[in-house]
Design goal:
Elements: E1 23-27, H1 31-36, E2 42-47, E3 52-57, H2 69-82, E4 91-93, H3 96-99, E5 113-115, H4 116-126, H5 129-140, H6 143-156, H7 179-192, E6 204-207, E7 210-213, E8 225-233, E9 237-246, E10 249-258, H8 261-285, E11 299-303, E12 309-313, E13 319-321, E14 336-341, H9 347-355
Antiparallel strand pairs: 1-11, 1-14, 2-3, 2-10, 4-5, 6-7, 8-9, 9-10, 11-12, 12-13
Length: about 375
């Protein structure tokens, strides 16, 4: 059985990784106030069982998907596999064009080959732009032709405001999407390809002796999170489409335009916790009121000395967060009213933060 065979997800609220030293964050204001300070921001939370939108903030405004594009590339690849056009052990060959893609990349050279299974892992973990091109060229002959197919299939899935221009999400002024469309795609992958969905939980991947970790730091850190993809370009900001399931109830949350990976992760975790709090409240009270803007008076997140991160939104249940996000070094998308940080910086976090000020525009941090 290959690594892509069915396996049980080991995601538990009890599993917490120690990541950095002490800090205190106080987050205030409602989502609308937050959005006004960040014109790249957009968010949506959907109850997958009912398809109800639990939270929406600029969810239909045009945004850049960055590497969330690779979810569509993987959807197309999974479909081709289901049609029998390609298999996990089939090999993809790197063209000169593929080998010259900018980061994030696996580092293939012209003529290198990968199995489809290796390609899937590289797309999920390394968010490899060179591998995205390899997939596109194999399935459609060229990346441009593949992008057209991606857009047509996206329309069929109900993604009415999305246009793809490449297989990777590298900057192109004609690329566009919305938070709602990215949520639709996230749900479609889980619904249509349950046999492959678990690949989004892959913690790491190695190529030529170099190991990379999955950029979705909420995996194993926030209860029930089991996918799916991060994205970053300078134009898009930090994006994350995430799914979680608790007691059989699945929600999908998408946040786009975060000012840092840490800020984005904290916002997504906050929205997921809020969604489950709202669903639990409805069960108890029998009410049917959506968390449209989910205003809060304050949320205090304490980064404990042992590295555990504990966030307490009002009187609600404790949120446990962890992962290699590094110490906070700036405003949490301007929602943070005070912060202090100390301790060592995670190397990956430093690399991602540096990408935000990179002089090379096409660079993707995730």
């Amino acid at each position: 059985m290959t690594h892509l065979g069915r396996r049980t997800a080991a995601v538990s609220g009890a599993r917490r990784a120690a990541v950095f030293g002490a800090a205190l964050v106080v987050i205030a204001a409602s989502s609308p106030a937050f959005a006004q300070t960040n014109d790249r921001y957009a968010a949506i939370v959907i109850d997958v069982e009912t398809n109800e939108v639990l939270h929406a903030d600029q969810a239909d405004e045009q945004r850049y998907p960055a590497s969330l594009t690779k979810m569509m590339t993987l959807y197309m690849l999974f479909e081709a596999m289901e049609r029998g056009e390609i298999g996990l052990e089939d090999r993809l060959t790197a063209s000169r064009f593929a080998s010259r893609q900018p980061p994030s990349r696996l580092g293939v050279r012209r003529g290198d080959t990968l199995t489809v299974e290796q390609a899937i892992n590289a797309l999920v973990v390394q968010s490899a732009n060179d591998v995205a091109v390899m997939v596109a060229e194999r399935l459609a002959g060229s990346e441009a032709a593949f992008a057209e197919q991606m857009t047509r299939r996206a329309r069929q899935l109900g993604m009415e405001h999305t246009r793809f221009m490449n297989a990777s999400g590298l900057p192109n002024p004609r690329i566009r999407t919305t938070a709602r469309d990215m949520a639709t795609l996230s749900i479609a992958i889980w619904r249509d390809f349950p046999q492959y969905y678990h690949v989004f939980q892959t913690p790491s991947n190695s190529w030529r002796g170099r190991e990379a970790r999955n950029h979705n730091r909420l995996l194993g850190a926030v209860e029930g999170v089991d996918g799916i993809k991060t994205g970053y370009t300078r134009a898009s900001g930090f994006n994350l489409a995430t799914a979680a399931v608790r007691d059989g109830r699945r929600v999908v949350a998408v946040v786009m335009g975060g000012s840092s990976a840490a800020a984005r992760d904290a916002q997504v975790a906050y929205l997921i916790e809020g969604a489950y709090e709202e669903l639990a409240r409805r069960e108890v009270l029998g009410t049917d009121v959506a968390m449209t803007s989910r205003p809060v008076q304050s949320v205090t997140a304490t980064f404990e000395a042992d590295g555990a991160v504990v966030a307490r939104p009002g009187d609600s249940s404790v949120i446990q967060l962890s992962g290699p996000v590094g110490p906070l070094r700036g405003p949490l998308d301007r929602r943070m009213t005070s912060y202090a940080a100390q301790g060592d910086v995670d190397p990956m976090a430093m690399e991602e933060q540096a990408a935000d000020s990179a002089e090379v525009e096409p660079d993707q941090g995730e």
